[in-house]
Design brief:
The structure holds two protein chains of two kinds. Chain A is of the alpha/beta class. Chain A is built from 15 helices and 14 strands. In chain A, β5, α9 and β6 form a beta-alpha-beta unit. In chain B, the strands form three sheets. Chain B has a seven-stranded mixed sheet, sandwiched between helices. In chain B, strands 10-12-11 form a three-stranded antiparallel sheet. The chains are: A alpha/beta, B alpha/beta.
């Protein structure tokens, strides 16, 4: 066997010590009628063969395109020191620090992660991690219901569609209600959460609201009127849940500043590879008053019996292994190694480096906006954005597909991600980060200009954008 | 103090000095944020630490050395399957083709990962005897939630809305009852039989028109194969309920027992256990879920599909209306699933069977060798793990399981899982895994012998253990009473760094 140490002689010695003739005897408790016939799987592969197979599979993916794709997962530069340190076997081959005396490395790094995220979000309590932004948002919504003893949340349509779908799945199980807050249809605030509609949704005395959930920046890259939304939520006795992107918090107002009670978000942009969607990092933070409602592990500072400073998992009475069916969540395994990567990334960049990442992304995005507008693809929404925005492109899905053929990954056709909003049928969601170059922007704009000038007529004659996109 | 003890050190925040670090990314133009209204910007920047790269490296390397890990020693933490993590799996996950692929990349750019996921689904379905597998759940507990939500959807699709209960044996992991609650069910806890197995008669009397599902861990959390499983599954199905298998202990039974073939309707698999993806200090894992025919329509979306022309694609939004929907963003913890795939291909059919055989052999060997050292409450052959107990030792010496566990640290071993399952007094759940050599297993037995001997002659040595770890027993009461959950950079209220 590939990684097993036992020789034939070892096995014989072990069988003799047990007092059986064959390993089959150890499986005698499996009733004959339930025994399996073996496995129909390929034979073992040597490491050399396996490495070739894996490289071939990896090479069948195409990651060399010039990319403007964000939509909840972002391409960033990660300092080399992060992955080098993450490869320490003492970190990645340990498990949950149940024995604190021999887990101070993991425990201190989790405490530091909690502290770093507390600084970014402006909130007090940060869980040791959740699965991803979607599940952290769903847990935040459940938390708001527990804390207020109400059974309905309001979720902006500016929240990532995958997060909204995940929240609906979780809420269906718990028989709780999640209603949508529409977006402003037109005018200077087009595409942002409709505060007037929110105010109306909050007034139904029969259906009190536990939490109001809004993302900043929104899925469409727009900056939301967070202070106003928070004021409306609190006036109705609801908690305010902010869905955040952590790099943006280097420059944008923090949840603590605009009065959020809970922040949830995706931490992938902090040094975690894109890896086709995971493993990522679910960030969940809250105000101190909600500490006993937050699900997931928490690490606290304490001392050992000799008075030495040390760290330990704490407030464990919220967790499933203690409280069983009354636990705050069923979460057990989390994303601790991704939280560690995020801490290392933040420490490697420092406050100025992180601000540079956010601000350089914003500068590149402004450059992208001008270039695309000049190529015939103006922004869809007028309001302020940080580094991601939607543009209007006639036949967006078909143009996107043709640009892939030209080596450009032109963001996300919004019709694919938000199929239930007809105003987005001809829109692409594009983003720039600090790794986006002026040359890439120029190449995108030039290719788009050619597509739009040469293909307007073809477009109407073709079978339609949906078919072309497939 | 040991060498490791000296490595206890300041936090990142205490290491911070203004002006350190930098040089990682270019500076933006000064007016980069001028187009954004000032009211939307942050008043004061986040107070992140400023450290140089050499300090950063030492900070983390020194912290890492305070950890016990599979890469440093024997980690028989029962029910967690702390086996060796092959290095090629880490290499594979870091291949740029896998690591740099965006989750919204069109299917035509993602064929390698989609093929890998599709093949992995097939392999896991074969191992579990299931019709189909979803790879979407991020961890075992999320797999449980996914499975139980599918059970709920199944009953509702048949208009059977009265089923509000999930039956769980009292030896189950805490995630089972917590999952049932999250999915809107009431948990009914069923006491175990005296032989440690499920009490089929107790289940029979609890089963009825209100039962939605029964959740069974097999082998059980006591490391025992549920020998009356056939009867139990018959009773469950006769009552119109579905059978969920917690696959936490799959490492014992590959090639010997397929839950789906035996009659389970749904199961989850912890890839960080059986398929050796690293535990990461708490995660990430992945919790694929296999289903039989009945639950096929309800699998979460999107599934990975193979077209007749051999191309792979992700299911489109709304393509399968009966689906319970998404349980997370994107398609799953693909980076973890690459590692699980590599592990399965390296072993192949024969290697996976051997994994289970060697895991069971090692556990039975330790159990036989420790039988005259500690109580071993269940004499029949165990699977991949077994329960020992310090009940007699405690009665004779006052030394508890906790003390034994802490003293093991001084002998250079990670303690087993303690005080679980809840059904055994002073429990130690010991899972050696298949990757530990006979020399290691023998050394562990020797250490246990010495500790029991110490308990009889010098119990205080155990009550105050560990003695050689970087820190000693912790004040957990104060940690919970006055929680300090974050560094407060500006208040200076923290005690100064210990060195």
């Amino acid at each position: 066997m590939a990684y097993g140490p036992h020789t034939t002689e070892d096995r014989a010695r072990m069988l003799a010590a047990i007092g059986v003739d064959s390993v089959d005897d150890l499986f005698a408790d499996i009733p004959a009628s339930l025994r399996a016939s073996g496995l129909q799987l390929p034979p073992p592969e040597s490491e050399a063969e396996l490495s070739t197979r894996l490289r071939d599979l990896a090479d069948r993916n195409r990651v060399e395109l010039i990319g403007f794709l964000g939509a909840g997962a972002y391409r960033h530069f990660t300092p080399a020191v992060v992955d080098q340190l993450l490869l320490r076997g003492e970190f990645y081959t340990a498990y949950t620090p149940y024995q604190p005396e021999i887990s101070q490395g993991t425990l201190q790094t989790i405490y530091e992660y909690q502290s770093l995220m507390a600084e970014l979000t402006g909130l007090d309590v940060v869980s040791a991690s959740h699965y991803d932004g979607a599940t952290a948002t769903a847990e935040a919504a459940l938390m708001s219901c527990r804390a207020t003893r109400r059974e309905r949340v309001l979720v902006s349509r500016g929240v990532h569609p995958h997060y909204r779908e995940t929240l609906c799945t979780y809420f269906g199980g718990a028989s709780l209600a999640a209603d949508e807050i529409p977006l402003v249809a037109e005018g200077p605030a087009a595409g942002t959460t409709d505060a007037a509609a929110l105010e109306r949704l909050l007034t139904d005395p029969e259906r009190p609201v536990a939490g109001v959930i809004v993302a900043n920046p929104s899925f469409f890259g727009l900056l939301e009127p967070m202070s106003e939304i928070g004021r409306l939520a609190h006036a109705a006795g609801a908690l305010f849940v902010s869905v955040v992107e952590p790099v943006s918090l280097a420059v944008l107002a923090s949840p603590g500043e605009y009065g959020a009670d809970i922040a949830a978000g995706e931490g992938q942009s902090l040094g975690i590879p894109l890896a086709y969607g995971g493993p990522y990092l679910g960030i969940l933070a809250c105000r101190e008053a909600l500490v006993r409602q937050i699900p997931g592990r928490l690490v606290g500072m304490t001392t050992d019996i000799d008075g030495r400073r040390a760290f330990v998992m704490t407030l464990r009475a919220r967790e499933q292994d203690i409280r069983r069916e009354k636990a705050a969540s069923n979460i057990c395994t989390n994303q601790a190694l991704c939280a560690l990567a995020a801490s290392m990334y933040l420490a490697a960049l420092g406050p100025h480096g992180l601000r540079d990442v956010a601000a350089l992304g914003a500068a590149r995005a402004a450059e992208l906006e001008m270039a695309l507008a000049a190529a015939g693809a103006p922004r869809l929404h007028p309001g302020p954005y940080l580094n991601e925005f939607a543009v209007r492109v006639p036949g967006a899905a078909a143009v996107h597909a043709r640009l892939v053929g030209r080596g450009i990954l032109a963001g996300l056709p919004l019709a694919r991600a938000v199929p239930d909003d007809s105003s987005l049928a001809d829109a692409l969601l594009v983003c720039a980060t600090e790794v986006t170059t002026s040359e890439e922007i120029a190449a995108f704009a030039a290719a788009l200009r050619e597509e739009l000038s040469g293909s307007a007529a073809d477009e109407r004659a073709a079978a339609g954008p949906e078919v072309a996109a497939r | 103090m040991t060498a490791a003890g000296d490595r206890l050190g300041p936090t990142l925040f205490e290491r911070s000095r203004p002006g350190r670090g930098g040089g990682k990314v270019p500076h933006p133009p000064k007016d980069a944020l001028a187009r954004i209204p000032a009211g939307l910007l942050r008043g004061e920047g986040p107070r992140l630490p400023e450290v140089s790269e050499p300090e950063l490296t030492r900070h983390y390397v020194n912290l890492s050395q305070l950890n016990y890990a599979v890469d440093t020693g024997f980690y028989p933490l029962g029910s967690c399957t702390m086996k060796y993590n092959p290095k090629i799996d880490e290499w594979a996950a870091r291949l740029p083709g896998f690591a740099a692929l965006h989750p919204f990349a069109p299917d035509e750019l993602s064929q390698g990962t989609l093929q890998l996921l599709w093949e992995l689904e097939g392999a896991l379905a074969e191992i579990g005897g299931m019709k189909a597998v979803t790879l979407q759940p991020a961890a075992g507990a999320q797999g449980e939630l996914t499975g139980i939500l599918m059970v709920r959807a199944y009953h509702r699709s048949r208009g059977d809305t009265a089923r509000s209960e999930v039956l769980v044996p009292d030896s189950a992991h805490g995630t089972n009852p917590a999952t049932a609650s999250m999915a809107g069910f009431r948990t009914i806890s069923i006491p175990s039989a005296s032989d440690g197995g499920v009490d089929v008669d107790a289940f029979r009397s609890a089963l009825g028109p209100k039962t939605a599902a029964v959740m069974i861990t097999n082998p059980s959390t006591l490391g025992l194969f549920e020998s009356r499983l056939g009867e139990l599954l018959d009773a469950v199905h006769k009552a119109g309920a579905l059978a969920y298998m917690d696959g936490a202990n799959l490492n014992a039974i590959m090639g010997r027992f397929k839950p789906g073939e035996a009659g389970f309707d749904v199961m989850h698999i912890n890839v960080h256990k059986t398929f050796s993806t690293p535990h990461g200090g708490g995660g990430p894992g992945a919790g694929p879920v296999g289903v039989g025919e009945k639950l096929l329509p309800f699998l979460p979306s999107p599934r990975v599909l193979r077209e007749p022309d051999g191309r792979f694609r992700l299911e489109a939004y709304g393509e399968r209306p009966a689906s319970i929907g998404r349980v997370r963003a994107f398609a799953g913890n693909a980076g973890i699933l690459v590692r699980a795939y590599a592990y399965i291909r390296a072993h192949g059919a024969s290697g996976l069977c051997e994994v289970s055989e060697d895991a069971v052999l090692a556990a039975n060997y330790l159990k036989a060798r420790l039988a005259d050292v500690l109580d071993v409450p269940f004499p029949r052959p165990c699977m991949h793990e077994f329960v020992a107990s310090s009940a007699t030792l405690k009665a004779e010496t006052g030394v508890r399981t906790l003390d034994v566990a802490k003293r093991l640290i001084d002998y250079g071993f990670h303690p087993p899982t303690v005080y679980f399952p809840l059904t055994v007094e002073e429990a130690l759940l010991i899972e050696p895994t298949e990757t530990e050599s006979l020399e290691t297993l023998d050394a562990f037995v020797e250490a246990m012998r010495c500790i029991v001997d110490e308990a009889r002659h010098d119990p205080d040595l155990l009550h105050s253990a560990p003695h050689s770890s970087p820190v000693r027993r912790l004040d957990e009461a104060t940690a919970a009473r006055q929680p300090n959950l974050r560094w407060r950079a500006m208040t200076g209220s923290q005690s100064p760094c210990p060195d």
